[in-house]
Amino acid sequence: MPYLGATAQPPRRKRKNGTFTRHSFLRIETPVRRQPLSENTAVMNNILVPTDFSAHAQAAFETAVSIARRTGALVHLYHVMDIPDIPGMREIMARRNPAGSEASETADSALHQLVRSETYRDIGASCSIDYGTPWKAITGKAEGDGFDLVVIGSHGMKRLEKIVFGSTTEQVIRHSICPVLTVQDTLCCFSPASIVLGAERSRENTCCIDAARSFASHYNATMHLVKVSTPDHFINTRQARMEMEFLARENGIGEYSVNCYNDESMQEGLLHFAEDIGADLLCMTTRVTSELARLYRTTMGRNTTTEVAIPILTCRVPEA
Known about the structure:
Shape: elongated
Largest sheet: 13 strands, mixed
Number of domains: 2
Mean pLDDT: 77
CATH superfamily of the largest domain: HUPs
Structural class: alpha/beta
Number of strands: 15
Number of helices: 9
CATH class of the largest domain: Alpha Beta
């Protein structure tokens, strides 16, 4: 049954002029629609998994393996030895130690132990080590070797108080030309049956729509299109529904629903809606992720960690 109503009102918030206001979180859903799925589904043949051997990185690898088993993709495990960003340093390090120092030998051994494990014999897994600034090396490899997806942990062995989204992960999200799937170490199984997609303008959202549609196709999932109305950017329900219906038809989205949601910001609205319906995957563009680190800080402060366990798929909006 579609839901129509408002949740409990949040605490009042004080404006700069001294007055108080209250914003109710209104959610309006429509029944799930079905139409023929577009045949132009994004291909997912090669998956890059950066690793620093942390729990979050292992969760990312397990997620990539799960996707590979479903799609037939190849998985490449990639470790970057962090060295100063000095011109020529990468080439010097690679030339001095083809096998590497003790640290790189240890990393190389750990990588090969993972990809040769009996547990992963059923997938095509490979690995490599590189030198440089991790996020630059990761995005460079993703682009240079034509990867279709990067799967990365939400943060590695960085201090949590520094930034909840590890700086490497955040930079990869901002600069990668291919979709980036971010997971936390609390994820036990990746099998998205319910996918939330921020319904931005189609031309700016093409990559994100294609990636979300690919996951929906491989996992027989329902896509929930969401338009978030905020105090600074109001959109009426009729217009929002028309735009989402057009987006679904234009992009050949198969099984979907259209949803209007009111919240303080687009970022919070998408996450809150995903939590409300128990979604398995949240898809958004980098336009929406501009404040994603702040959003994760907020949600990590809650009492229940399950509320922040939703994997997030992000795609960079092409520059004009």
